[in-house]
Amino acid sequence: MAKFKGRGFLLQVQTDDSPLTYATIGGFETNDLTKTNESVDVTDKGSAPHREILEGAGIQSKSVTGNGFVSDDAQFQLIVEAAEADTFVILKLISDAGDTHVGTFQITNFQRGGEKNGAETFSCTFESSGQIVYTPPA
User: Fold this and answer.
1) pLDDT (tens digit, 9 = 90+) per residue, 19-45?
2) Integer distance in angstroms from the first to the last C-alpha of the chain?
3) What is the fold, at CATH topology level, of the domain defined by 6-135?
4) pTM for the full predicted model
5) How many CA atoms lie within 13 Å of 25's alpha carbon, on the beta-carbon side?
6) How confident is the model at residue 63 (pLDDT cuts 50, 70, 90)?
7) Has residue 138 got a pLDDT over 90?
8) Closest CA to 11 of 68, 60, 61, 81
9) How far apart are CA 60 and CA 39, in angstroms?
10) Which residues of 18-45 are buried (b: 16+ CB within 10 A; e: fewer)?
11) Residue 10 in 3-state DSSP?
12) 91 CB contacts (<8 Å, ≥6 apart)?
């Protein structure tokens, strides 16, 4: 069974749409992806004692979180500016296995901090807006 490198789990931001170009956001130390499928409970008296869920009816969403070290990387600055302006960004998350998730996200949380003898750090959360396209490994 193959194992995959965490450093190969990359978060990229769209930097141009003609031609379509993505660039890895500098400074990230960790990235996480969470997919949520909201369930719609349609249990009735005929279902008892078991719950029934309506297939394909709930809201689907994806959240991407990350943290790392503040950088002068141009893509990191693009994220900072999008957080300040409350604008959407188009993200591409690539796993070391080769699958991708691409779509529009809003930065819902952006935090920076620093200790007296450490590097300046940040953490952020991106929430999906609209369909996120999943492409399995080739």
Assistant:
1) 999 999 989 999 999 999 999 999 999
2) 17
3) Factor Xa Inhibitor (4.10.410)
4) 0.88
5) 30
6) very high
7) no
8) 68
9) 9
10) eeeebeebbbbeebebeeeeeeeeeeee
11) strand
12) 11, 12, 13, 14, 64, 101, 102, 103, 104, 105, 126
106: alpha, beta or left? (left if phi > 0; alpha if psi -120 to 50): beta
Q: Is 113 exposed, middle or buried (0-12, 13-18, 19+ CB in 10 A)?
A: exposed
Token duo for residue 130: 């609209």
Whether the CB-CB separation of 37 and 134 falls below 8 Å is answered with: no
Q: Which residues are bridge partners to 126 per DSSP? A: 64, 107
Closest CA to 70 of 31, 108, 107, 29: 29
Rounded to whole angstroms, what are the CA distances from 102 to 61, 113, 116? 12, 29, 38
